[in-house]
Specification:
With 170 residues, the protein is mainly alpha-helical. It has a single domain, classed as Orthogonal Bundle (Arc Repressor Mutant, subunit A), CATH 1.10.10. 59% of the residues lie in helices and 11% in strands. A 3-stranded antiparallel beta sheet has the order 1-3-2. A hairpin with a 2-residue loop joins strand 2 and strand 3. Helix 2 packs across helix 6 and helix 4 packs across helix 5. The protein is globular and about 50 Å long. The chain starts with a helix and ends in a 19-residue tail after the last helix.
């Protein structure tokens, strides 16, 4: 398909949809920038915190590289490279996976667990400051509904079938 044909086949965003998309992107950037800045004050990156926190949710603080990558929405290679850097800092270690001779297990170390324990209050305060405290309870409820819809594979339907509430014009 030629570029010209592809561009002609695109269902472009209408002005309301484009404003909503750009607003969503601004929110994501603002929250991520704020929380990343706050975590950096204690020497952790957002990806570090994500790896530590998701590993802490696993039994024995251990997960296969593949399961951990899937849970985080990362590629195996991205997680492997990041785990190498974290391993060098003593935050986690790799051990052979007894169930898969080609794979490895990621294990949260005592130092990684301590780093997470120190970071968690800072992260929660940051999430509150940059996100939660700026929203009304009904905003939070709406976000939960939106997230549930985004996670539901059946939610991918014909946009024309969705009920729309018209936005007031400015």
């Amino acid at each position: 398909m030629s570029t010209k044909a592809l561009v002609g086949a695109v269902h472009w965003l209408n002005p309301d949809e484009e404003r909503a998309w750009r607003a969503f992107r601004r929110v994501m950037v603002a929250v991520q920038t704020g929380t990343a800045r706050d975590l950096a004050t204690i020497g952790l990156s957002e990806p570090d915190y994500e790896v530590l926190s998701t590993l802490s949710e696993r039994p024995a603080y251990t997960s296969t590289l593949g399961k951990q990558a899937d849970k985080m929405g990362w590629s195996r290679s991205r997680l492997s490279r990041h785990a190498t850097r974290m391993e060098a800092r003593g935050l986690l270690r790799r051990t052979p996976d007894p169930a898969d001779g080609r794979g490895c297990l990621l294990v949260l170390t005592a130092q990684g667990l301590e780093a997470l324990a120190n970071a968690a209050p800072i992260h929660v305060a940051s999430v509150r400051r940059h996100f939660i405290d700026r929203l009304a309870p009904e905003d939070l409820a709406a976000l939960e509904q939106i997230a549930a819809r985004m996670e539901d594979p059946k939610a991918v339907d014909d946009p024309e079938d969705r009920p729309r509430t018209p936005r007031p014009s400015a």
